[in-house]
Amino acid sequence: MVGDSIETANRDVTTMAIDKKQVEKSVKEWFTKTANYEWRRLQQDPYHQIEFFVTKYFLEKYLPKKGLILDAGGGPGRYTIELAKKGYDIVLFDLVPEMLELAERRIRSAEVSRKVRKIIQGSIEDLSVFDDEAFDAALCLGAPLCHLLTEEQREKAAVELVRVVRKGAPVFVSVISRIGLLRSILVQFPHEMKYAKHHWEVGDYIPGLQGEGFTAAHWFMPEELQTLFEKQGTEILELAGLEGLSSHHEKKTNKLYKDKEKWKLWTEILLETCTHPSVVGSSEHFLLVCKK
To answer: 290 with 234: CB under 8 angstroms?
Structure first.
C-alpha cells in the first residue's frame, strides 16, 4: 500500500543517508555518466541560460576586481572558464574525476589554461589541501552542497568554504530549492507525486526509495541555507532565485526569447525581482552570497 511504502521509506532514509560511502558512490556514478550533460546544461536553451546569466550578475557584483578564486564542486568548469576569461586565477576542485577530465579538455579548448592554477579531485566537505584564507573568493555553484545528505556534512562543507577565503571575501553557494522541487514534481514528474510529502517534510532524496531519475540529494529552504552560513560568522549579502519568475515555465521562456525586445525587458525584470523572498524559494535553484 502507498501509505505503508512511504512510511517505510521515511524510516529507512535516515539509515541510508548516514552511509556516506554509499551516497558518495551514488553521486560519483551519476555525475560520471552525466558529465557531458552538465557541461551543456547551462547553455542548452534560453531557459537554462537564465541560471547562468543571473549567477554571473551576482559574481560581477560581488567578486573582487582580481584575485585567486576557488571553484569548489565546479564540475566540468563552466564558471572556471568564464572567470578565467575575465582574468581571474582559478583553482577547480570537484569530486568526480571524469568531470575534471572533461574540464581540462574544455579549459585547453578555451585557451585559458594559464589562468587555471590547479585542478584537484576531492569532496567539498574536506578542503584541507588548502591553507586558511588562501582565496579571494569561493564558489560552490550548481548545487554540490545538495549532495551531502547529513547536516554534519553540510556544516563541515560550510566551515571549509568560509575557512579558505580571506576576511572580507565573498562566498557564493547555489542549491536546489525544496519548494521548487515540489513544483518540479507537479510540472515534470507527477508520477512521483506519492513522494512529494516526504520531500517537503524530510528534504532528502534517496534513489529507489523516493523515486528514480536523480542521485542522492538534499533540498534546501532559503532560511536553512542562510542559517548554515550565518553560523560560520558570515554576513549574508543576497539571496536570489536563479530561474526567478521564469521558473518552471521552460516552454514559455524559450518562446519569449525569439522576440529580442521582449526578452530584454524580461531579463531586466528577472534581475529586479530575483531577490524578492517570494521568488527566492520558489525557483528551481537559488543562490546565497555571503561575506566572511
So the answer is: yes
